[in-house]
Amino acid sequence: MSHTRQSSDEAPGTGGTEVAGVEALRAAERRLQRAQLSSDVAELDRLLDDRLVFTGPDGALYSKQDDLRVHRSGQQTMTRVDEEDLAVLVVGGTGVTWFLGTLEGTLSGEPFVARVRYTRTWILDDEGWRLVASHVGPADGHAAAHG
User: What is the value of pTM for the model shown?
Assistant: First the structure.
């Protein structure tokens, strides 16, 4: 198993509170995936912090409003989000998720299929887990083995 799998949900001596935090973050990550798949702008608005900075596969930086706009306008539609692996780390009110999977859909009218790795940084606030930073890049055939 990859080194990122040794997260607080598997660490020796982990208390119940940390395990609950890990499970809540895992649930938030999966809500995000469902919201992306259905272009659920209301749910995305809840899950994305206003300060979100997303580094896209082109290396450009995007904001929460950029993300909401492409979903709201239909410029981006997802038809498939297949999770192969999801590692989670929670330290206090900060969490990181590492998603490995395949995405399929259209962007600006062009179809795409991509196997990707997302690294997402989350914060815990009164509303629950909210995404503040994200980076996506291509995942080659070795990504699953090396995590």
Answer: 0.83
Q: What percent of the chain has pLDDT over 70?
A: 84
Residue 141 banded pLDDT, cuts 50, 70, 90: low
**Alpha-carbon distance values, 6 to 9, 12, 60, 116, 129 (Å):** 8, 10, 31, 21, 20
Look up the domain containing 65 and give its range: 3-146
Provide the CB-side half-sphere exposure for 131 (13 A, CA). Answer: 29
pLDDT at 18: 77
d(CA 38, CA 26): 19
Q: Indicate which CATH number applies to the domain containing 33.
A: 3.10.450.50
Please, which residues bridge with residue 122 across strands?
95, 131
Q: Is 56 helix (H, G, I), strand (E, B) or coil?
A: coil
